[in-house]
Amino acid sequence: MNVNEQNVEETFKLLADIAHEKTPFFADIWERSRNEFGDPWVKEIVDNVVKVFGSLENTDSWEGAIRGYAEFALDAMRNQKFFEANGHYRWSTLKEIQGRYYDNEDHMMKGYLPGMYLSHYLWPHHFKLLEFFRKEVLSGLAPPPALFYDVGIGSGMYSREVLRGVPNVRGVGFDVSPYSVEFTSNVLQAYGLQDRYEFVLGDIFTSELPWKTADLVVSQEVLEHLEEPERFTRILYRLTKAGGKAYITAAVNAGHSDHIYLFRSPEEVKTLLTKVGWKIIKWRAEYGYTGAPIEVTPCIAHFLCER
Amino acid sequence: MDIVSSSQEIHSRVQQVFHQVFEDSTLVISEKTKADDVPSWDSITHISLILALEEEFGIEFSSEEVTSMTCVGDLFAVLQKKQ
After folding, report:
1. Fewer beta carbons within 10 angstroms: which end of chain A, N or C?
2. Based on the structure, what is the number of domains in chain A?
3. ipTM of predicted assembly, 2 dp
């Protein structure tokens, strides 16, 4: 189904109704985000749901995605409360989370990845990040990148953005999770972008890598999932050509079941990137709303950097 | 304890937890109470409620149980099952 002016409103209402009926305690965000971002946001989330999760006739798939979002949001809120109470994240090593989450097909495909995908629109601080990426990062790249790497592709949102926003760019997505690769592949196919993109499934810490070849490197909310974020950002640096750009983000004071490295301030991330050699061109922090004191309020620190 | 008195006890303890979480000692809940009936019952207070109930009853709700609840009756049913 193509989304046009006539059916955007009716489709959005249907989505919000499903959320209210099936996950009523996680449904208020649909109206809140609509009120904050307006009609363009409505059109975009409807377009995403229809393309990625199926057409109007496929409301079972929509319900699955909406339940996935509720699980993703619950995971974040539960772990945020744990963080507020204990001052640290629940887990601290990859070994503790790999089997529980990344290798768990049900968790990844039914909850985590569709939930994360929708959170890029439903969570105001995630959507602000996406808008910053479009307006302040992609539109300012001159000359436009010919090759980009997305390291830790997640649900594929940022790879999709680069491929959509930069005509003729080619991309490579790196991830340890076969489920992230599968989900992202579905997203890119839904948007007809798969021909300009390849996947590398594996651990970037132990792989042979094409050093100094990327015009642009993207790594969105990956650092907090790692035991050694500094070593990781050195790898990103080495992947980038001299003069090439990177968009690197990190969740700060943000509990989630698979967040294992605790950044306590945006400045801590900035210091790490600078230490590795990145020149920071611009940066910002987007805060979520929990009603808690600032030192335990989740935020995402995001940086446009240059090698 | 028979089923009726067990249900009454669960109701009473859940009622107390609602009073604490929503900071409203006049709040009266029934099986039919939904999010729309309690003005400040949103996703943030829902997680506070769930954590307080987990502590009160010494149990843990699964993600599916928490996300698919639609009314207080669903809460009672899960608590009854876990007793």
Report:
1. N
2. 2
3. 0.83
Domain's final residue, options A52, A85, A119: A119
Query: What is the span of the domain harbouring residue A112?
Result: 5-119
Question: Which residues, 6+ apart, have CB-to-CB distance to A192 below 8 Å?
Answer: none
Q: Is the pLDDT of residue B49 over 80?
A: yes
Question: What is the number of CB-based contacts under 8 A between chain A and chain B?
Answer: 48
Do A69 and A130 lie in a common domain?
Answer: no
In a shared domain, residues A103 and A239: no
| Rounded to 5°, angle at Cα A33 from A32 and A39 | 115
Averaged over A250-265, what is the pLDDT? 97
Q: Is A233 helix (H, G, I), strand (E, B) or coil?
A: helix
CB contact under 8 A, A24 and B70: yes
Least confident range from A59-63, B15-19, B72-76: namely A59-63
Across the interface, whether the CB atoms of A23 and B68 are under 8 A apart is answered yes
Same domain (yes/no): A260, A243? yes
> Is there a contact between B35 and A81 if contact means CB atoms under 8 Å apart?
no
From CA A299, how far away is CA A200, in angstroms rounded? 29
Asked whether the beta carbons of A183 and A116 are under 8 A apart, the reply is no
Q: Which of A23, A28, A291 sits opposite B67 (nearest CB)?
A: A23
> Cα distance from A237 to chain B (closest Cα, Å)?
39
Query: Higher pLDDT residue, A1 or A239?
Result: A239
> Of A61, A90, A119, which closes a domain?
A119
